[in-house]
Amino acid sequence: MKKTVLILGLILSFNAHAASSGTCGTRSGEGTDEDPYVYADNCNWTLDESGKLTITGTGEMGDFEQIKIGEDDYITSAPWGTGITSVTVGDGITSIGKAAFDGAKNLSTVDGMNDVEKIKSQAFAYSGLTSISLPDSLTSIENSFSSCHNLSEVNLPNSLTSIPRALFWDTINLSSLTIPSSVTTLEFAAFDGSHITSLIVPATVTTIETAVFAHTPNLTSLVIEGNPEMIGDIFYAIGQEYNTVWGNTTPLTIYCLAEAGCEQKAEGTKANVTEYTKYDNRFYQIDDKLYATADLMTHGAACDNAQNCQDILDAASQGKSFEVGGKYYATLDLFANKKSCENQSQCEEMLSASKQNAPFIVGGRFYHSLDDFLTGNYEKKRIYTIEEAEKLSKKTGNTFKLRYK
Predict the structure, then answer these.
(1) What does pTM read for this prediction?
(2) CATH classification of 1-160 is 2.40.10, yes or no?
(3) With bands split at pLDDT 50, 70 and 90, how would you rate the model's confidence at 138?
């Protein structure tokens, strides 16, 4: 108890008056006045006045303590404190230490990490991190993002073979995620407490452990592409407390291969189970309808036939528009959401304008981007002068009609 109080005092001191530089390699010592922590000099850090932290060196970063300062609030014992706003991890550093940036509420971005192979427990827990792209060098990650309430975007690399235990616990702003095809195991409670709305479990996943999808109140669509071994109740607490903070607020539909056993696992979850098959091992089939991708299947966006499915994928990969059911679409996302163009020429104009970050008009409405078109965010009146119309026409190659106030 005496040691914990001493450490907490040191941490608060560091946070109020953080030093500007130091070492951060493997830790030795006991963290007392008589035997203070000593960090190896293979890892070094500098902190500027704006709160930008730079980590340099070679090899592993040391581990730090996670110190509880409130009912559900923690900070790190790292010498740079919690006032950091950004982090750059230089080449040569191979690990992010335990609780390294725990409680750094002002931290929003992390750059570099090109050689990082391991990210340890609680590394970014309770921080203000908003997005992170994990490097291809990464092979091991622990429950590093617990209670990252601002985290909304995570890019996982193809070097990972598992989504670890409680990785995304209490990530209330994380609504979507792509599981890499390298992943074979979803570990215990991997997504427990996250707010994902949809998820595709690739066929490479051979094991799904207990409570992986527990307490996911916004999960409405789950696609299980393969036939994984499901250990325990993987849907524990989904829909058990319907319309509560932990239960699903909207019905969940589980799409799975017939042999995957989803019906049994989904018992008591208030989930609908839709079985699908793979057509020619390429496309998704539900009854007599074919879908080019799993996402399009969950949106009910069917192809006309197998050749049409292939044409859709070919066109999308080339950045071209495509036709389905006599209607034209510029992208897969727009097709999934049934946002068609007026004709093929208009689709091509939209794609061309998008590549140039230029606006376009559909149905007399002015859109700044394809995302705006998808969400219906348009301007009814935008062009007021001949000069404006001519300028936009030259920039985009489209003809803009005059509109008056």
Answers:
(1) 0.83
(2) no
(3) very high
